[in-house]
Every structure is written in C-alpha cells, then in structure tokens.
Specification:
Strand content: under 5%
CATH class of the largest domain: Mainly Alpha
Radius of gyration: 24 Å
Number of domains: 2
Structural class: mainly alpha
Helix content: over 70%
Number of strands: 0
CATH architecture of the largest domain: Alpha Horseshoe
Number of helices: 11
Largest sheet: none
Oligomer: single chain
CATH topology of the largest domain: Serine Threonine Protein Phosphatase 5, Tetratricopeptide repeat
Order of helices and strands: HHHHHHHHHHH
Shape: elongated
Length: 211
C-alpha cells in the first residue's frame, strides 16, 4: 500500500511538472509574438486547463492573438465583447472584431455582424449592410444566412416583401436541414399561388447551382 501511495504521489508530481513545463514553453512562444501560441495560452487560461483559470490573463492573450491576425481569436474576442463574458459588454468592439474575422473569410462572423446591423447594436441599424453580408454568406451555402435572408423578405426589412424570395431562401436553408426554415417554408407556401411556387422553386434551383 505504501509503495502504491508513493508511486501515485510521484505520478502527481511528474504531471504537475509536465504541465508547468508546457505552460512555460507556450508562454515563451506567445511572448515572442507567435499568434497560435497566444491563442492556445488564452484558451488555457479561459478553461483552466493545466493552469489556474484566469479570465483577465485569457483576455490579454486573446487580444494579442487577435491583433496578430489570428482569426479564431478574433471571433472569440468578439463573442466575449458581445456577451459580456469576463469583460464589460461592448457591441461596438464586438462588431469591429467580427468584421476583421469576416474579412478573413469567417462566415459565422459575417452572420453575427449582420445581426448586429439588423438590431442596431454597436453599429447604426443598417438593413442594406446586413443584407449584403447575408447574401455573401448565403452564396457560400450557409443555411443560417439563407434563413435570415428569407426573414428579411418575409418582414420587409430593407427590401420589399416578396413571398417568392422568401420561399426561395427558406427552401434552400431547409434543404440543408434548417428546421425553422422548413417550418416557415410551409407557412409561406400556403399563401402563394401555383405560379409563385414554381418561380420560387426555379430560383432556388438556380441559386443552388451557383459557385
């Protein structure tokens, strides 16, 4: 029994030393300006993995990684500002980081930025800008962007109300498993005549064949 306890104790010491060594090496890379190391270190401190959880330290390293162009860090920093996680809520800063991540091709950031424009949170309410962002993401086959475009045409926000466009976008999103879009597609179809349905389906098929 004593031998088992001794081995267990030595194992704990070895694990602690290994964790400390890993954190030390990662910190050295982060302090040297390596964006991926900065992001990993930020995640470690946020989750409390191998180090004591420290949101202030996590925010610092997320900020540095984001400033060095790390896309995932930019997205995470934007989410933290939007939700007020470990920091005062600031939708203005959230929009700035979503924009930088979107410029690097992050579709989720495009959608989240579009939603800020729709709500006027942190940015002036701008339906045209929101639609532009959603159209770009929808063209990349993103079902949430397609669903939100359908909502714009359904509610007439920044665009004329258009049941054909509504059905088209809900149809495209539903085809990818978007449940709310599938429900709305049925609702809209009940208010459309045959010619409108045929045209909506034609447009959806045409859109689905795009790049």
């Amino acid at each position: 029994m004593n031998r088992f306890i001794c081995m267990l104790f030595l194992g704990v010491l070895f694990l602690s030393a290994s964790c400390a060594s890993y954190e030390s090496k990662l910190r050295a890379r982060a302090e040297a300006g390596e964006a991926e190391a900065q992001y990993q270190l930020a995640s470690m401190y946020w989750e409390g993995k191998k180090v004591k959880r420290d949101r202030t330290e996590s925010l610092k390293w997320h900020q540095r990684a984001a400033e060095h162009g790390h896309r995932e860090a930019q997205v995470r920093l934007a989410e933290m500002y939007e939700r007020g996680e470990g920091i005062s809520q600031d939708c203005g800063r959230a929009s700035q980081w979503y924009k930088r991540a979107a410029e690097q091709g992050d579709l989720e950031s495009e959608i989240l930025l579009a939603q800020l424009y729709l709500k006027g949170l942190g940015v002036p309410q701008n339906y045209i800008e929101a639609r532009t962002l959603l159209e770009h993401a929808a063209a990349k086959k993103n079902p949430e962007a397609q669903y939100l475009l359908g909502q714009l045409y359904w509610e007439g926000r920044g665009v004329p109300k258009d049941r054909v466009q509504v059905h088209k976008w809900f149809n495209l999103a539903a085809a990818q498993g978007h449940e709310r879009a599938a429900t709305m597609r049925l609702l809209v179809a009940m208010a459309m005549d045959r010619d409108q349905l045929v045209e909506a389906q034609r447009l959806a098929l045409e859109e689905s064949k795009g790049p």
